[in-house]
Specification:
The chain is mainly alpha-helical. It has 13 helices and 3 strands. It has a 3-stranded antiparallel beta sheet, with no helix packed on it. Helix 5 packs antiparallel against helix 6. It is elongated, with a radius of gyration of 23 Å.
Length: 298
Amino acid sequence: MTMNKLISQFLHYLSVGRGFSPRTIEAYQHDLNKFVEFLESIKKADIAIITKEDVRRFLSEQAKTNGAITRARKLSSIKSFFKYLGREGIIAANPVSDIEAPKLPEKEPTYLTEAEYQNLIATVRREATPFYLSRDLAIIVLLLGTGIRLSELVGLTLDRVNLEHSGRSIKVRGKGDKERIIPLTNEVVSVLGQYLKTRPDVSSNHLFISRLGDELHARSVYGLVKKYLKGTGIKKTKMGVHSLRHTFGTSLMNNGINIVVIQELLGHKKLETTRRYLHINNVDLRNAVDSLVLTKQL
């Protein structure tokens, strides 16, 4: 079977079997196509003869034009592809399982302070048209109040939303098709309840719907969040939907919530990922040290 045929099968699996978004599928396809181009250049069209050294040579070639983040993403795509081939019994051994990703630079995520996210909510109330007000407000408040990903938000269905007092929560399907239940605050419940009162009775079971009554797509949510963030006048780099997720994690940390609990709520596989949401400044460090009492005799 040709390499391109194997890639087509893999992408179909990601789409149907894993429920990945079209945008994510396109990214995998782009990365794997680049890998195939390289393999063709070194006359290796047979998947069975590809070695660890071939992949390393590919990454070395990519380093001439791509940064560490892009190369790490391409390696991740290749690893996922070979893992799939191994699971399907197409290859006997995985040549890339122990190749380490390029070291990525540490970047502090963009997040909103309490005053800034209150400004964002006020901006939605001020700028949203009457038709979209309850829906857009519910989207912003839910993102801020739960820290869910964009894909998790657009995938939410009515049967996964519980606004009853005894079990106020949402059930989302995250990365790796893993489900988690996130409790809702009174404020989030109230805003969602107001939205559901105005939500048209349509056949779509998705929580958030478009003006036409079908499911609201990720690109639409991305656009409306960017629009309202711009309306706040806040000048921060790379603000978007993920900034609201960072805001949720940071707010929990600032309120003294255990990092393992934050990891569970955000659906992080590794604790190291959650640590990126923690923003420790010099004042925090000074207050921490000053709180220590070694002896009362000094």
